Amino acid sequence: MTCTHRDQIHEVTPSAKGCEDCLRDGGTWIHLRLCLTCGHVGCCDNSPNKHATKHFHATGHPIIQSFEKGETWRWCYIDKELI
User: Fold this and answer.
1) Helix %, strand %, coil % for the chain, to 5?
2) Where does residue 26 rank: exposed (0-12), middle (13-18), buried (19+ CB within 10 A)?
3) Number of domains comprising the chain
4) Considering the entire predicted model, what is its pTM?
């Protein structure tokens, strides 16, 4: 399968150095994800609050990239595939 949402990838500025929502609410995270549509930094699905996925459901922004040092993989929520 080939992701059909690559046109929604933009040059973005990360919204925070950690999970934006956890920092605001006093939560904790395990790994970070960067929304490639708007720059929102959210926590992964192994984190208690799963803010990256919640951001996708709230906005429809389809593609995230790992925001962990040394990782460059990307994931499309809609097509459910690594790109």
Assistant:
1) 20, 20, 60
2) exposed
3) 1
4) 0.96
